[in-house]
Fold this sequence. Notes:
This protein is 57% helix and 6% strand. By secondary structure, it is an alpha/beta fold. Helix 2 (36-46) links the parallel strand 1 and strand 2. The longest helix has 31 residues, at 250-280.
Amino acid sequence: MARRLTDNLTSRYYEAYNHLTSKQARKRIIAYVESFDDIFFWRTVLSDFEDDNIYFEIMLPSRKKLVRGKKSVLKNQLCDKMGEGMIACVDADYDYLMQGTNATSKYILRSPFVFHSYAYAIENFQCYAPSLHDVCVMATLNDKPVFDFIRFFEDFSRIVFPLFVWSIWAYRNDKHDVFSMSDFNLVTTIGRTSINGTGAAMHHLEEKVTQKIKWLKAKFPNRDAEIDSLGKQLQVLGVAPERTYLYIQGHHLFDNITAPLLGRVCSTLRGEQEATIRRTAVHHTQMSNELSSYEHSVQDVKSMLRRNTGYKDSAEFLRLHADIENFLNRISK
């Protein structure tokens, strides 16, 4: 079967295209991403660099069939085509923290045309603690601060950090069959948390983490110095203990911790707004109209969380931003 011409496009094609077009025309760089869900995030990254001279076109790696994931973006055929006119934009997952101990990690860290999120995935950015109050405001139209998200995620992170170090150790040493990411997620699932006080939930979490670490030490004895050294390495890479939540599996963080928590916070905020309307309405008709209007104005929490862009001042986003900037400075010389 004859192959389509577009299947053979490489970075050199786009570079040649840019040279052949008018000097006044903007240079185009193709940016391949893992899935449709990633397009909006990478648009928030790359838009900052677009001007009269350059623009990015973000797309999936295949025009012929729907394929997703990092493997489809970093497959050998596509890697060979990358260059100044074609880049790959992927989630870091654990590959950044693996620091070259597997082939994918090695390629992501070494290739000048592959950019990764530093945080585990896009969902981690969407759950960036300093932005979560604004997400609640978008969902409920109530600006009252009823929960300290920053404190919650700092406490959570400090508790799970020692176990997270073990998780990275397991993957670096090919022991993830004994202690998998799913095992880590199971231990760090908090369950229902009261927004009036998280002490009990954090205490229970700490007990689970301590118990699991005790089990791991029994399974892999005499590793204390190795684990301590790895913990220090991870902190150099950016995993401060109070920011561990940005490096754990994104779906777990989003679906099992952040979204349920925001759901409870937003339920409280909506209840307060509805109570205010009932209390201040002049008559029943006005109350009914205002409640109906408010009901149509509020938004689904998960939808607002997925649209959250309040992560742009996070250290991880700024590092990614700097990587793109350095790349553009190199190719403009």
